[in-house]
Amino acid sequence: MSPEQTAMRPVVVTRAEGPDGLLSAQLRQLGVPVLLWPATRTGAVKSNELEQSLQRPNEFDWIVFASRHAVAAVLQRLPRKPPRARIAAVGQATAHVLRQRGWQVNIVPDAAEAGALVAALALELKAGERVLYPASSRALPTIAKGLAQLGAEVTQVEAYSTEPAGLDAEECRKWIERDGIGAVTFASPSAVIELEHALGQVDLKRLLSSAVAVAIGPTTARALAERGYPALIAEAATLAGLANTALRAVLQNGDQS
Do 3-39+165-256 and 43-163 share a fold? Predict the structure, then answer.
Protein backbone atom coordinates (compact mmCIF):
# COMPACT_ATOMS: atom_id res chain seq x y z
CA MET A 1 0.00 0.00 0.00
CA SER A 2 1.36 3.40 -0.96
CA PRO A 3 1.79 6.28 1.55
CA GLU A 4 -1.10 8.07 -0.18
CA GLN A 5 -3.39 5.10 0.41
CA THR A 6 -2.32 4.79 4.05
CA ALA A 7 -3.70 8.29 4.72
CA MET A 8 -6.65 7.92 2.36
CA ARG A 9 -10.03 9.25 3.39
CA PRO A 10 -12.78 6.60 3.27
CA VAL A 11 -15.21 5.99 0.44
CA VAL A 12 -18.91 5.73 1.22
CA VAL A 13 -20.88 2.80 -0.20
CA THR A 14 -24.57 3.71 -0.48
CA ARG A 15 -25.43 0.41 -2.14
CA ALA A 16 -27.47 -2.03 -0.04
CA GLU A 17 -24.81 -4.49 1.11
CA GLY A 18 -23.02 -5.72 4.21
CA PRO A 19 -19.32 -5.58 5.16
CA ASP A 20 -18.53 -8.39 2.72
CA GLY A 21 -20.63 -6.92 -0.08
CA LEU A 22 -19.41 -6.90 -3.65
CA LEU A 23 -18.57 -3.21 -3.92
CA SER A 24 -17.04 -3.05 -0.44
CA ALA A 25 -14.84 -6.03 -1.27
CA GLN A 26 -13.72 -4.42 -4.54
CA LEU A 27 -12.74 -1.23 -2.72
CA ARG A 28 -10.89 -3.02 0.07
CA GLN A 29 -8.93 -5.03 -2.48
CA LEU A 30 -7.74 -1.69 -3.83
CA GLY A 31 -6.68 -0.59 -0.33
CA VAL A 32 -9.57 1.83 0.09
CA PRO A 33 -11.17 2.28 3.54
CA VAL A 34 -14.94 1.85 3.34
CA LEU A 35 -17.93 3.32 5.17
CA LEU A 36 -21.24 1.52 4.74
CA TRP A 37 -24.12 3.96 4.40
CA PRO A 38 -26.80 1.78 2.76
CA ALA A 39 -29.47 4.15 1.52
CA THR A 40 -31.85 1.53 0.11
CA ARG A 41 -32.78 -2.07 0.67
CA THR A 42 -34.63 -4.65 -1.36
CA GLY A 43 -38.01 -5.80 -0.10
CA ALA A 44 -40.52 -8.44 -1.04
CA VAL A 45 -42.85 -7.97 -3.98
CA LYS A 46 -46.10 -6.26 -3.01
CA SER A 47 -48.39 -7.74 -5.67
CA ASN A 48 -49.04 -11.07 -7.35
CA GLU A 49 -48.55 -9.74 -10.89
CA LEU A 50 -45.20 -11.51 -11.22
CA GLU A 51 -46.66 -14.88 -10.24
CA GLN A 52 -49.55 -14.43 -12.63
CA SER A 53 -47.23 -13.58 -15.52
CA LEU A 54 -44.91 -16.50 -14.82
CA GLN A 55 -47.81 -18.91 -14.90
CA ARG A 56 -47.93 -18.31 -18.65
CA PRO A 57 -44.24 -17.81 -19.57
CA ASN A 58 -44.60 -19.22 -23.08
CA GLU A 59 -46.79 -16.27 -24.04
CA PHE A 60 -43.72 -14.05 -24.05
CA ASP A 61 -41.15 -13.68 -26.83
CA TRP A 62 -38.64 -11.94 -24.54
CA ILE A 63 -37.89 -11.62 -20.83
CA VAL A 64 -35.83 -8.54 -19.98
CA PHE A 65 -33.81 -8.28 -16.77
CA ALA A 66 -32.41 -4.97 -15.49
CA SER A 67 -30.89 -6.25 -12.22
CA ARG A 68 -29.83 -9.34 -10.30
CA HIS A 69 -32.69 -8.69 -7.88
CA ALA A 70 -35.16 -9.21 -10.72
CA VAL A 71 -33.32 -12.38 -11.75
CA ALA A 72 -33.52 -13.76 -8.20
CA ALA A 73 -37.25 -13.02 -7.99
CA VAL A 74 -37.97 -14.80 -11.28
CA LEU A 75 -35.71 -17.80 -10.66
CA GLN A 76 -37.36 -18.35 -7.29
CA ARG A 77 -40.64 -18.86 -9.11
CA LEU A 78 -39.46 -20.18 -12.47
CA PRO A 79 -36.25 -22.24 -12.15
CA ARG A 80 -36.10 -23.24 -15.82
CA LYS A 81 -35.97 -20.89 -18.76
CA PRO A 82 -39.14 -20.98 -20.89
CA PRO A 83 -38.14 -22.65 -24.17
CA ARG A 84 -39.81 -20.01 -26.33
CA ALA A 85 -38.56 -16.82 -24.71
CA ARG A 86 -35.34 -15.05 -25.57
CA ILE A 87 -33.47 -13.34 -22.74
CA ALA A 88 -31.92 -9.87 -22.49
CA ALA A 89 -29.93 -8.61 -19.50
CA VAL A 90 -28.48 -5.24 -18.52
CA GLY A 91 -24.85 -5.93 -17.68
CA GLN A 92 -22.58 -8.93 -17.45
CA ALA A 93 -23.19 -9.40 -13.72
CA THR A 94 -26.91 -9.88 -14.29
CA ALA A 95 -26.26 -12.17 -17.24
CA HIS A 96 -23.77 -14.20 -15.20
CA VAL A 97 -26.39 -15.07 -12.57
CA LEU A 98 -28.74 -16.29 -15.29
CA ARG A 99 -26.06 -18.39 -16.97
CA GLN A 100 -25.11 -19.97 -13.66
CA ARG A 101 -28.65 -21.33 -13.51
CA GLY A 102 -28.54 -22.62 -17.06
CA TRP A 103 -30.42 -19.78 -18.76
CA GLN A 104 -29.08 -18.79 -22.17
CA VAL A 105 -28.78 -15.01 -22.47
CA ASN A 106 -29.28 -13.70 -26.00
CA ILE A 107 -28.49 -10.00 -25.54
CA VAL A 108 -26.14 -8.19 -23.15
CA PRO A 109 -25.26 -4.63 -24.24
CA ASP A 110 -21.69 -3.36 -23.95
CA ALA A 111 -22.80 -0.71 -21.44
CA ALA A 112 -24.80 -1.77 -18.39
CA GLU A 113 -27.40 0.93 -18.96
CA ALA A 114 -31.11 0.78 -19.73
CA GLY A 115 -30.71 2.90 -22.86
CA ALA A 116 -28.00 0.58 -24.17
CA LEU A 117 -30.29 -2.41 -23.70
CA VAL A 118 -33.08 -0.73 -25.64
CA ALA A 119 -30.63 0.10 -28.43
CA ALA A 120 -29.38 -3.49 -28.55
CA LEU A 121 -32.93 -4.87 -28.64
CA ALA A 122 -33.81 -2.49 -31.46
CA LEU A 123 -31.68 -4.68 -33.72
CA GLU A 124 -33.49 -7.89 -32.73
CA LEU A 125 -36.99 -7.05 -31.54
CA LYS A 126 -39.86 -7.34 -33.99
CA ALA A 127 -42.96 -5.20 -33.84
CA GLY A 128 -45.76 -6.96 -32.00
CA GLU A 129 -43.50 -9.22 -29.94
CA ARG A 130 -44.44 -9.63 -26.31
CA VAL A 131 -41.92 -8.67 -23.62
CA LEU A 132 -42.04 -9.52 -19.92
CA TYR A 133 -40.14 -6.96 -17.87
CA PRO A 134 -39.85 -7.88 -14.16
CA ALA A 135 -38.73 -4.65 -12.53
CA SER A 136 -38.15 -2.75 -9.32
CA SER A 137 -41.03 -0.88 -7.73
CA ARG A 138 -39.04 2.26 -8.62
CA ALA A 139 -38.01 1.32 -12.14
CA LEU A 140 -37.50 4.29 -14.42
CA PRO A 141 -39.57 4.28 -17.64
CA THR A 142 -36.55 4.00 -19.96
CA ILE A 143 -36.83 0.29 -20.76
CA ALA A 144 -40.61 -0.11 -20.89
CA LYS A 145 -41.12 3.11 -22.86
CA GLY A 146 -38.21 2.42 -25.18
CA LEU A 147 -39.40 -1.09 -26.04
CA ALA A 148 -42.96 0.11 -26.55
CA GLN A 149 -41.66 2.71 -29.02
CA LEU A 150 -40.02 -0.17 -30.91
CA GLY A 151 -43.46 -1.74 -31.31
CA ALA A 152 -43.24 -4.31 -28.53
CA GLU A 153 -46.13 -5.21 -26.24
CA VAL A 154 -44.52 -4.75 -22.83
CA THR A 155 -45.79 -6.31 -19.61
CA GLN A 156 -43.97 -4.61 -16.73
CA VAL A 157 -44.51 -6.30 -13.37
CA GLU A 158 -43.12 -5.53 -9.93
CA ALA A 159 -40.54 -8.20 -9.07
CA TYR A 160 -39.16 -6.56 -5.94
CA SER A 161 -39.50 -3.34 -3.99
CA THR A 162 -36.82 -0.74 -3.39
CA GLU A 163 -37.24 0.85 0.03
CA PRO A 164 -35.39 3.21 2.40
CA ALA A 165 -32.78 1.33 4.42
CA GLY A 166 -33.09 3.18 7.72
CA LEU A 167 -29.68 4.83 7.55
CA ASP A 168 -28.08 6.05 10.82
CA ALA A 169 -28.10 9.68 9.76
CA GLU A 170 -26.57 10.98 13.00
CA GLU A 171 -23.48 8.81 12.60
CA CYS A 172 -23.19 9.99 8.99
CA ARG A 173 -23.36 13.62 10.07
CA LYS A 174 -20.39 13.14 12.41
CA TRP A 175 -18.27 12.26 9.37
CA ILE A 176 -19.73 15.14 7.37
CA GLU A 177 -18.98 17.67 10.13
CA ARG A 178 -15.28 16.85 10.08
CA ASP A 179 -15.06 16.62 6.25
CA GLY A 180 -13.84 13.08 6.66
CA ILE A 181 -15.15 11.55 3.41
CA GLY A 182 -13.12 11.21 0.22
CA ALA A 183 -15.81 10.01 -2.18
CA VAL A 184 -19.40 8.76 -2.19
CA THR A 185 -20.42 6.00 -4.58
CA PHE A 186 -23.89 5.72 -6.06
CA ALA A 187 -25.00 2.56 -7.89
CA SER A 188 -28.57 3.68 -8.65
CA PRO A 189 -30.78 6.77 -8.79
CA SER A 190 -32.69 5.37 -5.79
CA ALA A 191 -29.53 5.61 -3.69
CA VAL A 192 -29.26 9.31 -4.57
CA ILE A 193 -32.90 9.93 -3.67
CA GLU A 194 -32.82 8.06 -0.38
CA LEU A 195 -29.50 9.50 0.80
CA GLU A 196 -30.96 12.96 0.26
CA HIS A 197 -34.08 11.97 2.22
CA ALA A 198 -32.02 10.49 5.08
CA LEU A 199 -29.52 13.35 5.43
CA GLY A 200 -31.57 16.28 4.22
CA GLN A 201 -30.59 18.69 1.48
CA VAL A 202 -28.31 20.80 3.69
CA ASP A 203 -26.15 17.91 4.89
CA LEU A 204 -26.05 16.22 1.48
CA LYS A 205 -24.83 19.50 -0.02
CA ARG A 206 -22.16 19.79 2.65
CA LEU A 207 -21.08 16.19 2.06
CA LEU A 208 -20.79 16.51 -1.71
CA SER A 209 -19.08 19.91 -1.53
CA SER A 210 -15.98 18.18 -0.18
CA ALA A 211 -16.39 14.55 -1.22
CA VAL A 212 -16.48 13.41 -4.86
CA ALA A 213 -19.74 11.86 -6.07
CA VAL A 214 -19.05 8.79 -8.23
CA ALA A 215 -21.94 7.35 -10.26
CA ILE A 216 -22.06 3.91 -11.85
CA GLY A 217 -23.55 5.28 -15.07
CA PRO A 218 -25.23 8.22 -16.82
CA THR A 219 -28.69 7.59 -15.37
CA THR A 220 -27.40 7.77 -11.80
CA ALA A 221 -25.22 10.77 -12.67
CA ARG A 222 -28.31 12.49 -14.03
CA ALA A 223 -30.11 12.01 -10.69
CA LEU A 224 -27.19 13.80 -9.01
CA ALA A 225 -27.04 16.55 -11.64
CA GLU A 226 -30.77 17.24 -11.21
CA ARG A 227 -29.97 18.07 -7.58
CA GLY A 228 -27.03 20.29 -8.51
CA TYR A 229 -24.17 17.84 -7.88
CA PRO A 230 -21.58 17.03 -10.53
CA ALA A 231 -20.47 13.41 -10.60
CA LEU A 232 -17.70 11.31 -12.03
CA ILE A 233 -19.05 8.42 -14.08
CA ALA A 234 -17.42 5.05 -13.49
CA GLU A 235 -14.92 3.91 -16.11
CA ALA A 236 -17.24 0.93 -16.72
CA ALA A 237 -20.82 0.43 -15.56
CA THR A 238 -19.80 -2.36 -13.17
CA LEU A 239 -18.97 -2.49 -9.46
CA ALA A 240 -15.30 -2.96 -10.37
CA GLY A 241 -15.45 0.13 -12.57
CA LEU A 242 -17.16 2.06 -9.78
CA ALA A 243 -14.47 1.00 -7.30
CA ASN A 244 -11.58 1.88 -9.63
CA THR A 245 -13.01 5.31 -10.37
CA ALA A 246 -13.67 5.96 -6.67
CA LEU A 247 -10.03 5.12 -5.89
CA ARG A 248 -8.74 7.60 -8.47
CA ALA A 249 -11.21 10.23 -7.28
CA VAL A 250 -10.26 9.99 -3.62
CA LEU A 251 -6.53 10.04 -4.38
CA GLN A 252 -6.94 13.12 -6.55
CA ASN A 253 -9.26 14.71 -4.03
CA GLY A 254 -6.66 14.13 -1.34
CA ASP A 255 -3.98 15.84 -3.45
CA GLN A 256 -6.20 18.90 -3.81
CA SER A 257 -7.22 19.19 -0.16
Answer: yes
- Cα radius of gyration rounded to whole Å, the chain: 19
d(CA 257, CA 255): 6
Distances in whole angstroms, Cα of residue 111 to Cα of each of 115, 136, 218, 240: 9, 20, 10, 14
Task: Report the alpha-carbon distance of residue 29 to residue 251 in Å, rounded.
Answer: 15
Burial bucket for residue 181 (CB in 10 Å: 0-12, 13-18, 19+): buried
pLDDT tens digit at each of 257 positions of the chain: 444 444 789 999 999 888 889 999 999 999 999 999 999 988 888 678 999 999 999 999 999 999 989 999 999 999 999 999 999 999 888 999 999 999 999 999 987 788 889 999 999 999 999 999 999 988 889 999 999 999 999 999 999 998 888 889 999 999 999 999 999 999 989 999 999 999 999 999 999 999 999 999 888 999 999 999 999 999 988 889 999 999 999 998 765 54
Q: Under CATH, which number does the domain 43-163 receive? A: 3.40.50.10090
Structural domain spans, the chain: 3-39+165-256, 43-163
Q: Which CATH code, of 1.10.3720.10, 3.40.50.10090, 3.40.50.720, 3.40.50.620, is assigned to 3-39+165-256? A: 3.40.50.10090
pTM of this prediction exceeds 0.90: no
Q: How many Å is the maximal CA-CA distance in the chain?
A: 60
